[in-house]
Amino acid sequence: MAMEAAELERLIREAFPTATIEINDLAGDGDHYAASIIAEEFRGKNRVQQHQMVYAALKGKMGGELHALALQTSAPAQD
Amino acid sequence: MTAAAGSPAIEQIKQTVQENDVVLFMKGTKNFPQCGFSSRVAQILNFMEVEFADVNVLEDDALRQGVKDFTQWPTIPQLYVKGEFVGGCDIITEMTLNGELDQVLEEKAVSFNKAAVEKIREQNA
Questions:
Q1: DSSP category for residue B58
Q2: Inter-residue contact A54 to A71 (CB < 8 Å)
Q3: Which of A11, A13, A34, B116 has the highest CB neighbour count under 10 A?
Q4: What is the complex's ipTM, to 2 decimals?
Q5: Alpha helices, H only, B1-125
Q6: Chain B residues near any Cβ of chain A (below 8 Å)
Q7: To probe the interface with A, which of B27, B75, B80 has the most A CB atoms within 10 Å?
Q8: Which residues in chain B have their CB less than 8 angstroms from residue A74's CB?
Q9: Fold of the domain spanning A5-74
């Protein structure tokens, strides 16, 4: 039960089309990833809400196919 | 199978988070955690001398699924302070290191050992 990094990125990209997404595989087993996501959609949301948005994008795969996902989320810095 | 709102599991969760100032839904117990992520949050709370109710979701599958539906948060552990979901392992770790957890506990009048959490920050600086 694992997930390819590309599949993870595709799911996140679908929900956050203009986001900057960086994924790294922490354990090389397709089960433990870290993802940092900078997306306009996060603006004004607190950290828990931002992470809930990402989990919603993963359509229930989080906690099942994907055991651990360390998330770093933020809105783009305002220039 | 998602627990419908108002199901026994959801009612039990609502009651637990209302009756206890601090609740940690975790795998295992505060003294015998059975998952690294749960263990880390339990250790932080123990070290900070925060009084908390530990709920072992491994003992009840309906509860284990119910708590994920209750917050739309797919993983365990889950920390609640005064009935409010604060976060999972990563968020609590980050909040401990940047002082946000102290703030939440102070705002909600939950006692903890300030010197202890400062020691955690020193060791992780």
A1: G
A2: yes
A3: A11
A4: 0.72
A5: 8-19, 36-47, 61-71, 89-98, 100-107, 114-123
A6: 37, 68, 71-75, 85-88, 90-91, 94
A7: B75
A8: none
A9: GMP Synthetase; Chain A, domain 3 (3.30.300)
